[in-house]
Amino acid sequence: MTCKTNSTLPVDVEAGVRYSWCSCGFSQTMPLCDHAHRQFSEKKSVKFIAENTETLHLCGCSETATPPYCDNHNQCKNA
Ligand code: FES
Fold first, then answer.
1. How far apart are CA 39 and CA 35, in angstroms?
2. H or E segment at 55?
3. Where is the Iron-binding zinc finger CDGSH type domain (predicted)?
4. Ligand 1 touching residue 47 (CB < 6 A)
5. What domain range is 67 assigned to?
């Protein structure tokens, strides 16, 4: 069972820290990867380094073409 949602999800990030965005939808810590892809998917996480300390609203459907950010692919409620 996936944990995808058709909305963006807030994540507090720190400048200079590397994060892994979940591209498979099976993570229990959406929108960040918890390594569930190793068991359930061929997909891998998308790494990114936060430029600023802030709250980002990342894609929660895992279908975006602009990971980790929402591209309104699934008509996200918060896009
Ligand atoms: S758990 Fe989904 S990419 Fe890692």
1. 8
2. strand 54-58
3. 6-43
4. no
5. 1-79
Find the 22 Cα to ligand 1 centroid distance in Å.
4
Measured CA to CA, the distance from residue 52 to residue 55 in angstroms comes to: 9
**Overall domain count for the chain:** 1
Supply the pTM of this predicted model: 0.89
List, for residues 35-50, the tens digit of each pLDDT value. 999 999 999 999 999 9
Distant-in-sequence contacts of 41-46, Cβ < 8 A, 24+ apart: 45/20, 45/21, 46/20, 46/21
Q: In degrees, to the nearest 5, what angle opens at C-alpha 78 toward C-alphas 76 and 79?
A: 65
22 lines ligand 1 (CB under 6 A): yes
**H-run or E-run covering 37:** helix 37-40
Q: Does ligand 1 have an atom closer than 6 angstroms to the CB of 37?
A: yes
